[in-house]
Fold:
Amino acid sequence: MQTIELPVTTTDGEFIARYSDKGLTGLNFPKAGRVSPRAVGLRIPAPIRKWHRFTATAVKAILAGRDPKAFPPLDLDGTDFQKSVWRALRKISAGKTKSYGEIAQAIGRPKAVRAVGGACGANPIPVLVPCHRVLAANKKLGGFSSGLDWKVKLLAREGVRW
DNA sequence: TCCGTATTGAACT
DNA sequence: AGTTCAATACGGA
Structure:
């Protein structure tokens, strides 16, 4: 199986999307100085081109603080626990937030709060899987592996107050 | 098995 | 209002 990387150009920089033959497997925040991978000379399969259009539109929608109308198929790599957490995260719509405890509750493991934090950190597809909409119970910012500033920015775009 | 975690709530200064 | 602490589930080494 081959992985194909394609850039998503936004006003906030160039995100990098990764695809397997089953769907989107990962998304990276813009990294300064990073040369955008282009699939030069690579033949990009038609389905991937199509998925990438969904991805690009969805990413831009979220950056603008709106809910995407459509997602590409996601090919998530993780344990069952992680996948159920990510599934729960995707149910949070733009402008809303939940606590780690609430997520734990939603997946039927009320006490697995810290493990939920771990799963968020392991999330391969930030932005589309809105890990940034999860705050600590005291309504304070928790952490964010790709940089707290991103979390703040995304929440602000969605009009969230905390 | 041991260690670290993007937690939490209660019990303390 | 800040700090410490134990309980807790999970994943990686």
Observations:
- The first helix of chain A runs from residue 46 to 63.
- The longest strand of chain A covers residues 4-10.
